[in-house]
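#data-curation
PF: Archiving a pair of folding outputs for the training set. Convention for this channel: one message per protein, sequence first, structure tokens after, nothing in between. First:
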Amino acid sequence: SPLSARHGSAVVWTGAEVVVVGGDSEGPCPPGTDCLRTPRPASEVVAYDPAAHGWRALPDLPVAAVGPVGGWNGTEVVVVAGGETLALDPDADAWRRLGRAPRIGDSVVPVAGGLVFVAYQQPAQHAAVDWLLDEAGRWSALPSDPFGESYDRSVAWDGTRLWLLSMAVENHFAAHEGAASRLAVLDVGADSDPGDGSWEVVDRATPPLRYEQDLWWSGQQLVVTAGGHGGVIRIYDPGTDAWSTLEAETASCLLPAAGSGPEWVSGGGPSLVSARPADSIASPCSRLGGAGTTWDGAVR
């Protein structure tokens, strides 16, 4: 990579390239230590083309930022940094400013007509924490989820609806062994204003899930992937209103969920790869590292 070592960057897949934006170029604290460190916001932007195995430089981010949040809206890399909304066509020579941004979460879900920015937690006062950025660069708040104070929130898009997995605060502390979460759905179809709707509760007590529950849409069902904390892979079929389980085995490396669009990979036991036309179990990931290794991403 042409970049110096860094972390806290926005990483966006465009369908052809991986775009890396900004980040913190100050070294992290080593594990098990306590450091006095001053973040060094970065503005460099580069793209990696996996087909050509090559990097190229893109125009710098106008606002150097640690922890920018970004996504691909189909034509542009959209990034929220320093309270601003910025957009870049990878073939263009400059970023364009779309205005100020609300306080957003760090998870991005592409939907028809824009990007939904999802918060990891919702406070008890039911303030709006999830936001839609439409193709015109306008922000609108999604309805507050119906579950009150929540953690480990994750959202998936099925083409017309948003599905929300939201764990109660009292269950969050037991989630290292598995605890019930909650499931709700919101209609945000092409003719719907997401701010005018409300979440419909589908399940107030899902089968037990672990920390960092991650929700995906695959085919005609929802999948809650096993991630860096192990556990099992849960599947929910909206057509039958039924949950099923893919049992995980003991793994020598634990992959979190990672993916783009309809394809994703999940570890934490078997490495389950979703790539139409059918889901499949990939080869064990033990060859990637030693026992106990935790991976922060997936290579396809």
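PF: Second:
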Amino acid sequence: MANTSANTLMWFRQDLRLSDNPALSWALEQGSVLPIYVLDESAPDKAQLGGASKWWLHHSLHTLNKSLKGKLLVIKGDASTVIRQFAKQYSVSNVVWNRLYEPWQIARDKELKQQMSEQYCVKSFNGNLLWEPMQVLKKDETPYKVFTPYYRKGCLQRSAPRYPLPSVDETSAFIQADEQVDDGEHITALNLLPEIAWDSDFYNHWTPGELGAKEGLAEFIEQAACSYKDDRNIPSIKGTSHLSPHLHFGEISPHQAWYAIIDNFDNAFDNPDLDCFLSELGWREFSHYLLFHFPTIQEENFNPKFDKFPWRKSAKDLSAWQKGKTGIPIVDAGMRELYQTGYMHNRVRMIVGSFLVKNLLLDWREGERWFWDCLLDADMPANSASWQWVAGSGADAAPYFRVFNPVLQGEKFDKEGEYVKRYCPELSKLPNKYIHKPWDAPDNILKACKIALGKDYPEPIVDLKTSRQRALDAFAQTKDSA
């Protein structure tokens, strides 16, 4: 039989770690702690976890539970109801969590805090952002809408982010709930893993959990940080940190990533590679900032003139894009990488995004929804802000007339075609000259490579030049609606 009371209920959310966890550190200072994770069924449909995120969460919860010596209580239900129920059942004095910034979570947390504050000490902490969005405003008290002044002026000229807190070692202070099931069966019962084995390759690329996050950060510091600015654009190599899913699930904090750079290198801001990486952490902050101040950006155009944009509807083209069968090699490679590994290189994300919204003229929300389901690092703020950036409808967005040419992008950033050949092996015998534009290859070369376009590899579903002009013509129709 477990203990019948605890000093504090610790509600784990997107902070699945024991180090640099402000809410958890405070909870342990008060005495015994009941750790709970709730798979919140009250979340709106648009916020329900996608398939890839469920896979990651399953493994991350198992890892956290192991760190807590099997004492993590995991429950599916309405989070507000569950938290009130267990606070009462275990006679806690305190209820704590780390803040989240999606609109529905803010509303739920605010209401829950109001409901419980008369009976309990309810405290929330900043465990997920370097600078909280309500604290960074322009001189006129309005929010920033452009990244560079937000980051360089609004953030960097403020006080430095707090230093990471030490790891928690007092596992004896955790209370095992009566409802707890041994060996993680309660996590397995959530049915987070896919019913079909489309996730088999995930295990070759990822190690969810706090230890995997720390090892990934250490590897980045050692191998890629000092060449980040250029290498991050080359999809065939590991030139980026691959920390995004770890950051989303809170297996590592942005403070830990930030100070790993600051502490390991002298004058990091004077180093173009390190400064570039830190600014990418800043972009993550900006995405959360935008969603906090403009909570409709997941569904509505930030720039209202795009409300009259003449998007096409084509289930056939959308399906070809989703399956990596557009006939444009760098696009197809990216979409196949996404489906196979739960991840897509950031440069390629911009290429496939531009192709969807500009060459195919399909609504950015279609891409946002597909990424939400397929990305292990699916993050509502980043996903929304990034898709609107590509579409030209967002804050500080790329100009709509900036249409990525996927052939030129491939030739520039995948010169030897290594990335394309990895994910489009049917093209692997093509000479590099044609790897990004197989339709230009002479018939004798295609035959020698045993490639029949339209059979072994698709013909392009759209002409790049004419579709670019179609996109510019469509954009011109929005000018009168500004």
